[in-house]
């Protein structure tokens, strides 16, 4: 059914395995699109009560966005790439059904961002986390500048993002980036399923509301999605009100929970439910995205990240960083 993902549904838990082990499960266009599709499946399939995202093989969860797809992108294409990732990771973070990350190895760049978009994280003791985008003349572009701050605090997050260093599992656990470390790799999925089985016994609507309220508390703008312009107040629906694409296509278009006008206009869905294009960072637009009950600065941070990610694509240093990685040499950055 999927080209780049393996899926397995057992005991109402869908296990999604990103399956590009030869490229350390790097997120290329296909993986991102299929993550969009599978998250819609999680929302819509009544047999699924919770889900796990993991990576194939023992080496990597996901070693980042696929760097080989970066070269040749201009500023606007960079921003669009970021916006697409934001929309899909937003759908993961705002899923009314719990989605856990089972981190079986490297979780770098987009991989760390994917794990952070999930509701909680378990990892093997050899796992390594990081946001090494600065080594490529880039910044995190799939929500990392916002979610890492939320999870570990600003001081730690900024240091990790500025150094691009790897964070070992024990340190990740100490700082709250992961909930549990398992000793043996083959315990990872078992332990994750045990936790989800406990949750699956609870009332689904209560589970959905906890996620929704916790997301509001995190102040990351997630409360904007699917609330038809109101923030925080529940419609009293079954927690699945984001719905599923009636087109049968993948979930990107209907990832705009609110703005039909936006989806029709063909631009990337705006997770904040506003009618401005994501990435438009005029202060007027930023204010437009400011709904009562959420933190305006935080919501704007996601939009600013998309624009800033795009801006990196207009730099020579990003070309240099990606080329150096692909040619297995050290980059030489000049500040241009
Ligand atoms: N994008 C594209 N390809 C990637 C990739 C990525 N993010 N990460 C790894 N790969 C590929 C490598 O190019 C290599 O492909 P090849 O065998 O065709 O040469 C393969 O996956 C194995 O990776 P390799 O670098 O040889 O493994 P390693 O054990 O020496 O190093 C890492 C592992 C994770 C340290 C290293 O792959 C790495 O730094 N990856 C990039 C991490 C990153 O910057 N992510 C953020 C991207 S925005």
Sum this structure up briefly.
The protein is an alpha/beta fold and 336 residues long.
Features:
alpha/beta, 6-stranded mixed sheet, 2-enoyl-CoA Hydratase, Chain A, domain 1, 40% helix, globular, binds coenzyme A, 4-stranded mixed sheet, single chain, 336 residues
Topology (elements, then pairings):
Blueprint (H helix, E strand, L loop, with lengths): L4 E6 L2 E6 L10 H16 L5 E6 L4 E3 L12 H19 L5 E5 L2 E3 L1 H8 L2 E5 L3 E3 L13 H9 L1 H10 L3 E2 H6 L5 E3 L5 H13 L3 H15 L41 H6 L17 H6 L7 H17 L3 H11 L10
Parallel strand pairs: 2-3, 3-5, 4-6, 5-7, 6-8, 7-10
Antiparallel strand pairs: 1-2, 8-9
Helix pairs in contact: 1-2, 2-3, 2-11, 3-4, 4-5
The site of coenzyme A has 17 residues, from strand 6.
Mean model confidence by pLDDT: 82
Which strand order does the major sheet show?
A: 1-2-3-5-7-10
- Name the quaternary structure: single chain
Assigned CATH class: Alpha Beta
Please name the CATH topology: 2-enoyl-CoA Hydratase, Chain A, domain 1
Q: How many strands appear in the DSSP assignment? A: 10
**Percent of residues in β-strands:** 5-15%
Structural class: alpha/beta
Q: List each distinct ligand once.
A: coenzyme A
Description of the molecule:
- With 336 residues, this protein is an alpha/beta fold.
- The protein has one domain (1-331): 2-enoyl-CoA Hydratase, Chain A, domain 1 (Alpha-Beta Complex), CATH 3.90.226.10.
- It has helices spanning 29-44, 75-93, 110-117, 144-152, 154-163, 169-174, 188-200, 204-218, 260-265, 283-288, 296-312, 316-326, and strands at 5-10, 13-18, 50-55, 60-62, 99-103, 106-108, 120-124, 128-130, 167-168, 180-182.
- The chain has a 6-stranded mixed sheet, with helices on both faces. It has a 4-stranded mixed sheet with strand order 4-6-8-9.
- A hairpin with a 2-residue loop joins strand 1 and strand 2.
- Helix 1 (29-44) runs parallel beside helix 2 (75-93) and helix 2 (75-93) packs across helix 11.
- The longest helix is centred in the N-terminal third of the chain and has 19 residues, at 75-93.
- Mean pLDDT is 82; it is low at 223-297.
- The structure holds coenzyme A (COA).
- Coenzyme A is lined by residues 23-24, 26, 63-68, 106, 108-109, 132-133, 135-136, 138.
- Residues 23-24, 26, 63-68, 106, 108-109, 132-133, 135-136, 138 line the site of coenzyme A.
